């Protein structure tokens, strides 16, 4: 019987998972070095969608001390999506306070109770400044099994809100990202900028960079479009392209 790889990976999501990396991984609390490791693993707690780093305790320069008891996830939800606090653990272990340079990140470390990861400590991706070699890590570690494929397309696409045309193009970029819906990015010159107003919203993607957002001009609050103005090098093709939420406005492929 053939195996669908995505289904097999999804089945593994209920387990504690890890993958070693040969990258030099460093973390800082403010300006103070917390850890420096060439033996790190990219690690997912059960049902976690995005990973964190775990390193041997011997590679940690900060002071680690036992924090309060862990907040255990009861397993009611099938997935722990981004935004769920690091402190909500779904595997046995001991929460740790991480102290360096007079500052403390309370509960932002987690000593794992697992035979294969004995002696490893996981760290909250959001609590520290991270580097892979000399490159800054945005948001969380990159999943080594995650791809972002950007392809030029000749699909003709029209974006509207009621009768208002927001964009129309026959030269979009199609973005195919692992476990994500495909996205259509349109050239900025094909966008009706009079219909949009920039907002203060901003998000970070470890694969594409920092996104800026727009809402409908004169319309209700709520972002309807985004763009990576200065994308990471690996997603450089996205510079100058805009994507719309297809659940908030109508994104139609024309025949």
SSE topology:
Layout: H1 5-12, E1 17-20, E2 25-29, E3 32-37, E4 41-44, E5 52-56, E6 63-66, E7 71-72, E8 88-89, E9 93-100, E10 103-112, E11 120-123, E12 129-132, E13 135-136, E14 148-152, E15 156-161, E16 164-169, E17 173-177, E18 183-187, E19 196-205, E20 209-216, E21 225-227, E22 241-244, E23 250-254
Parallel strand pairs: 7-8
Antiparallel strand pairs: 1-4, 2-3, 2-12, 4-5, 5-11, 6-9, 9-10, 10-11, 12-13, 14-17, 15-16, 15-23, 17-18, 18-22, 19-20, 20-21, 21-22
Report the uncertain regions. Answer: none
As a whole number of angstroms, the C-alpha radius of gyration is 21 Å
Major sheet characteristics: 7 strands, antiparallel
What is the number of helical segments per DSSP (H or I, 4+ residues)?
Answer: 1
Describe the strand arrangement of the main beta sheet, using strand numbers. 1-4-5-11-10-9-6
Broad structural category: mainly beta
The dominant shape is elongated
The overall strand count is 23
Helix content: under 10%
Output the helix-strand order.
HEEEEEEEEEEEEEEEEEEEEEEE
Mean pLDDT: 94
Strand content: over 45%
- State the end-to-end CA separation: 38 Å
